[in-house]
Amino acid sequence: MSETMPQEFWQGVEQFNSGQFYACHDTLEALWIEAIEPEKTFYQGILQIAVALYHLRNENLRGAAILLGEGSNRLRRYPDSYGGINVDELLSQSAELLTVLQQTSVNKISASELLENQNLPIPKLVLSNDC
């Protein structure tokens, strides 16, 4: 990992945490296109989780579940803390939301019912203690 993450990455973190998921995707995608490993997959994992949350907001529960899983799978190869982000916490929060989405599907709850009647565990990008 490079010693410091680029300023655009931190802009993407702010966008993610403020609920600007589409903007976060655009910001991180621009970094991802130019990146080399191991940052490339790290950016992709976070941006896929951002797109999952964008799908969730637009009541596309299936798309949200698929991208939560794909983004999480990409991030599992990283240590608990990477790039100044607590990866373990992001994975835990994403897994919690994925469980809710899967239960929603099994229980045949509509997306609008889910979004209206539940405090969803929306993931946040938490800074790691060692940055």
Automatic annotation (TrEMBL):
<dbReference type="InterPro" id="IPR023203">
    <property type="entry name" value="TTHA0068_sf"/>
</dbReference>
<dbReference type="InterPro" id="IPR005500">
    <property type="entry name" value="DUF309"/>
</dbReference>
<dbReference type="Pfam" id="PF03745">
    <property type="entry name" value="DUF309"/>
</dbReference>
<protein>
    <recommendedName>
        <fullName>DUF309 domain-containing protein</fullName>
    </recommendedName>
</protein>
